[in-house]
């Protein structure tokens, strides 16, 4: 082991050897870390002056898991199972000192040790299913020997991350210590060998096991890794550790090459890339300790909750005292539901609610660091608010709008400080949905953009930078996607045909069911606003307009594309069928049938083509940002990787052919993106490194 270049070092504390890992930022299990660990364990196992070993990741760390960058490469030695086997087979006691994240492969290394001590901030978990995999170095075999099969299935299939005290309660760690490294060094010499590989699986409750399996399958969402995890964890009950390891490894290697795992790795890297914005290198965010939200309706209240959850003081501003108090009531209702469901304690709910102050006094806006306008989606309303803000907000305050479609430059122009204006487009419900579109206007200052991104991170959002256009990234693409779904309906598909195809693809809800949930009047207002600028060559489907004009606004009125009972259950409605048939007859359309695959391919293709236009115009920085937007904001199935990644897998020549068919059916605005045409001709892809 080369002590100079290796990320793994050994220090002696009497007869205890501490194997230290220093591979920033999170001690990922790169080839160098694996080799260093293996070499250290082998050398120290044979050293007569060493009585015990401690594995430490340093202050605040342990090992956060695999080096995902190596996942797309052929497996190289030493393999993680070899490292884990060396630790397990060491004749001397090995203590794991977990002062930070012990996740995935890091958790498997800890499980191979004889004693696991955790610092108060340690995190423990086998999280591989989040990447479409299962543990591949004994995690599925050692864990059930500690927790039993039912708990192991729940932990692995949910990819659950446990805090130190929760891990202690389940037996994953043996103690929680303030100075975990000092405690590990002190306890190591007296630690007895306790190989989990030699222990039997404790007898379990078969009903609990069946319930854990049912929950795991319900949450699988088409993920093959879940079924494989269940199978190999249950194999541990047979008691043959070697056979269980072999079954686990075979399943891991097969899953590693699966389409689902590759899509999830793509999203993993996309998340890392999303925060890299040209021009923001070295730019510091403005400090934000207090925020105001203008508008306390459903969206404004949700934004206030998201901010309060992040520890910020929130001023909730409404037109009068009665509306402000009603807004606080909406915030309170969110926290009451969370307390009732057990997501937070009553004390936590009260603490967060106390951070929100309702008011009708706009003078309160003079002291806050950032203002988010969440008023009605109307340009005149929003520009009037920003004129008022310009006169009240302190110099240097960030002025943000939650607009989902409107021209950000026009809103910014209502102020004398357009450099301070940025878009913060939340998705409903704002306290739950992870996507946050950070929209850059023509004159948005770099530090304002940096502030918006920092705020998104503080709230736990997936922030995506978007340029200014009608609908930005997500709603612009979604509008075309919805339009072509309506074209399919007018041409012969039923709304339930389209929704069933999308749900079979992996969406939790189909497009028409989502429209009913959101309210048909929202898109109706947008279409009316755009009517004057609509290309006369565009095919316009007026079925949704007819439904709205008949008072069918969706679930809130008990009827939209579907009919709803008192419990909110949807069912096809003969009245909708009649409206559709009338619309077809008015245009002389003879309906034809579509298969689920035809529907899926058509809608995916038009999304990808519009995405290519968004890229070419600079509205999105990269194709992977579009994928993240749709996965986190529109229900696109994670295991498909997002629309741009999925289009690559479909093959861009096939995508182009489908877009040409969509253009023939849908008219203007559906023409293939020039970038799509170019890539299809070159057998290229949207994702770098995926094609020619």
Descriptive account of the structure:
- This is Enoyl-CoA hydratase/isomerase family protein.
- By secondary structure, the protein is of the alpha/beta class.
- The strands form 4 sheets. The chain has an 8-stranded mixed beta sheet with strand order 12-11-10-13-14-15-16-17, with helices on both faces. Strands 1-2-3-4-6-9 form a 6-stranded mixed beta sheet, with helices on both faces. Strands 5-7-8 form a 3-stranded mixed beta sheet.
- The protein starts with 7 loop residues before the first strand and ends in an 11-residue tail after the last helix.
- The mean pLDDT is 95.
Mean pLDDT: 95
What spatial order of strands do you see in the largest sheet? 12-11-10-13-14-15-16-17
What is Rg? 28 Å
Largest sheet, strands/sense/barrel: 8 strands, mixed
Q: Report, as a whole number of angstroms, the end-to-end distance.
A: 40 Å
Structural class: alpha/beta
Q: What are the segments in which pLDDT stays under 50 over at least 5 consecutive residues?
A: none
- Sheet-strand content, in percent, reads 5-15%
Number of helices: 28
General form? globular
Q: What's the helical proportion of residues?
A: 40-55%
Count of β-strands: 19
Pfam families: 3HCDH, 3HCDH_N, ECH_1
GO molecular function, one term: NAD+ binding
Catalytic activity: a (3S)-3-hydroxyacyl-CoA + NAD(+) = a 3-oxoacyl-CoA + NADH + H(+)
Domain 3-hydroxyacyl-CoA dehydrogenase C-terminal: 471-564
